[in-house]
Amino acid sequence: MNQSKPRIIKDYDKLDPAIQEQIKLVYPAGFSDHLLYYFDKDGKNVSALPFETEDKYYLIRMTLSEAERIIEDDDDYDDDGFLKDHVREEYEDKYADMELAAADEEEDEPLDEPVDDGDDDDY
Fold first, then answer.
1. Which one-letter DSSP state was computed for residue 63?
2. Which pLDDT tens digit goes with each residue over 99-115?
3. What 3-state class would DSSP assign to 57?
4. What is the spatial order of strands in the sheet that 45-52 belongs to?
5. What is the rounded distance in angstroms from the CA atom of residue 78 to the CA atom of residue 72?
6. How many CA atoms lie within 13 A of 49 on its CB side?
7. What is the mean pLDDT of the chain?
8. What is the pLDDT of residues 53-91, one digit of tens each?
9. CB of 8 within 8 A of CB of 57?
10. How far apart are CA 80 and CA 82, in angstroms?
11. What whole-number distance in Å separates Cα of residue 44 and Cα of residue 61?
12. Could you give the dihedral angle defined by the CA atoms of residues 42, 14, 57 and 107, in that order, rounded to the nearest 10 degrees?
């Protein structure tokens, strides 16, 4: 993760649809296996999906059950929870010039602890 990028915590349903499409490209087999768990400023255990664009680093708030429900309810995913081929191809063409990435799960240094004040702002 590039430390100079703005870091954002946001709910999935409040993300711009274009960001949601990009997330689907990075996680074509669903979100539940990629959630990060951390304690917020109030000591509450929360989970989020990491996602990085060229200019921002996101933690998308969601529980395990929400991650599973999002995929089940999304017509872009098949009954087995995989991004449909024609949807993947469409999004790959649409976002071909962008660098998209999940958080590097093998980082040597731990992430800074995110701060979430309840708003959908930078952290």
1. -
2. 776 655 434 334 444 54
3. strand
4. 7-11, 57-61, 45-52, 36-39
5. 8
6. 28
7. 84
8. 888 999 999 999 999 999 999 999 999 999 999 999 999
9. yes
10. 6
11. 13
12. 60
